[in-house]
């Protein structure tokens, strides 16, 4: 693995000398720009005043990855073409100085289940897919490339989106090992978009992308003190993204600020012919002019927000975490929000139970069907079915990186027989639970959002395909981050963005990690 990294970095840095001869302005290896916690806006301002180039920015992130990734294990691969793409963005900007595309020249890290038709692998963190070739860019990557964004590389993830083993910890994958929380190395980085969240928190890229089926954006965002947006299912294309469920899978941004996350959401949201049914249905929710206009400092004013207390805020109001949330609730009220406390969703205990709700039955069946379909579309691949993946892992189980954890979930999925009447009944049950639960509550109480800590609401949002935004909320006694999540009904992104942005700007909780614990 070390040789792979050395090869890719050597190749990338060797390009700098070659590219410098074709640039219409001098290329320096250094810049006076402050890269720490750099935002899209600050970077674009530096591009415009020529204190920074995209090539320099990519150089910086490659250097940071080389320095920190051996300890964080957030990045699986860097893109050998990243500097070429950065140089192209610099040239485009020079030729058209009035180009105001926000992501032009901005480096993006992608979760390793998001397909790219380039020199990068797309493996879901598994050796079983190493060397496979996708037939085209994923829908979200195709949109990113149109903006001029630089595909920096692939972020680590809980292998197979945490859908392989019942015993593997969050953030572990065979190809990269155990992802490390950059704030407290013994803390859970959460998953499955662990690498994307760790990388965003540790300033290894400007912005990142993750995916969520049930908690995989919201949880790692909260655990690593970054912002994560889980969009309404279908708002972003799932085409050429390694799947779990067509009902629940969604792709969203993980960034250091709400603003940057919204810029990325604007870039990736929209119709895709390769995910036509879902994206056509969700396209009606996309506001004319996009989502940036909902970044309002007064976004909390007049918002009706329901606090789901019982079963979610499972800690004392007098604990450090409890006190932080109570202070933040008070602040939201001062900012004009109308908070209704102690609300309950009907049958909430059933919805949150993976077995009782029907979620387990549905996901196990859907995964086999959808994965086999995905593998059949690959231009080339060492495996062509879930059965092949299971056989691969069994064949290589004596190898340390493969054998460490089992594949119980795979075996359960392989034993399913398609979308049977039992599966359809489970899906119908989840739809009814959602309709009678969160939908009824929010409409009866006329709520703009519900609020919960961390990722405790993930199953409610997951089974219904609803959106949520996680924002940094604080750090516990040991320095471990925690988040606050604002959730809503399908298409509620504008309201949630207003709330999340106003909350973020009023609290300004996030601070970069110091990495002290990583040296121990």
UniProtKB/TrEMBL annotation:
The keyword Signal applies. SUPFAM superfamilies: Amidase signature (AS) enzymes. Keywords: Signal. Residues 1-24 form the signal peptide. It comes from the Eukaryota. Pfam families: Amidase. Residues 57-496 form the Amidase domain. This is Amidase domain-containing protein.
């Amino acid at each position: 693995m070390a040789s792979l990294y050395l090869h890719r970095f050597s190749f990338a840095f060797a390009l700098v000398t070659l590219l410098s001869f074709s640039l219409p302005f001098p290329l320096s290896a250094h810049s006076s720009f402050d890269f720490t916690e750099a935002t899209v806006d600050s970077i674009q301002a530096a591009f415009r005043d020529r204190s920074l180039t995209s090539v320099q920015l990519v150089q910086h992130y490659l250097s940071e990855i080389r320095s920190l990734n051996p300890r964080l294990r957030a990045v699986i691969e860097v893109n050998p073409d990243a500097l070429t793409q950065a140089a192209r963005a610099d040239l485009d900007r020079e030729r058209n100085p009035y180009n105001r595309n926000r992501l032009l020249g901005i480096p993006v890290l992608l979760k390793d289940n998001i397909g790219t038709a380039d020199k990068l692998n797309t493996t879901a963190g598994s050796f079983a897919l190493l060397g496979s070739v996708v037939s085209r860019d994923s829908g979200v990557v195709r949109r990113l490339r149109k903006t001029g964004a630089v595909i920096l590389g692939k972020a680590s993830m809980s292998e197979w989106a945490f859908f392989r083993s019942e015993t593997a910890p969050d953030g572990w994958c065979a190809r990269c090992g155990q992802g490390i929380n950059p704030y407290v190395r013994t803390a859970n980085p959460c998953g499955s978009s662990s690498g994307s969240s760790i990388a965003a928190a540790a300033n290894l890229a400007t912005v990142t992308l993750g995916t969520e089926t049930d908690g995989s954006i919201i949880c790692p965002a909260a655990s690593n003190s970054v912002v994560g947006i889980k969009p309404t299912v279908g708002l972003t294309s799932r085409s050429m993204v390694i799947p779990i469920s067509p009902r629940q899978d969604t792709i969203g941004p993980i960034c250091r600020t709400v603003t940057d996350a919204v810029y990325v959401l604007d870039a990736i949201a929209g119709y895709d012919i390769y995910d036509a049914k879902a994206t056509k249905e969700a396209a009606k929710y996309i506001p004319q002019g996009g989502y940036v206009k909902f970044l309002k400092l007064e976004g909390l004013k007049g918002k009706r927000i329901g606090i789901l207390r019982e079963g979610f805020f499972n800690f004392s109001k007098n604990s450090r975490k409890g006190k932080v949330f109570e202070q933040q609730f008070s602040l939201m009220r001062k900012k004009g929000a109308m908070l209704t406390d102690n609300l309950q969703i009907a049958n909430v205990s059933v919805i949150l139970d993976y077995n009782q709700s029907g979620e387990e039955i549905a996901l196990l069946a859907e995964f086999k069907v959808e994965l086999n379909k995905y593998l059949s579309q690959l231009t080339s691949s060492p495996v062509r079915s879930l059965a092949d993946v299971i056989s691969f892992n069994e064949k290589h189980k004596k190898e340390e990186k493969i054998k460490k954890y089992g594949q119980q979930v795979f075996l359960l999925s392989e034993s399913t027989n398609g979308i049977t009447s039992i599966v359809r009944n489970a899906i119908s049950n989840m739809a009814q639970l959602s309709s009678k639960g969160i939908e009824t509550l929010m409409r009866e109480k006329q709520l703009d959002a519900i609020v919960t800590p961390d990722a405790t609401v993930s199953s409610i949002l997951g089974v219904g395909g609803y959106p949520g935004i996680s924002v940094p909320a604080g750090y516990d006694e040991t320095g471990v981050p925690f988040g606050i999540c604002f959730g809503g009904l399908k298409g509620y992104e504008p309201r949630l963005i207003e709330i999340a942005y106003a909350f973020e700007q009023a609290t300004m909780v996030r601070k970069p990690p110091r990495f002290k614990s990583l040296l121990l």
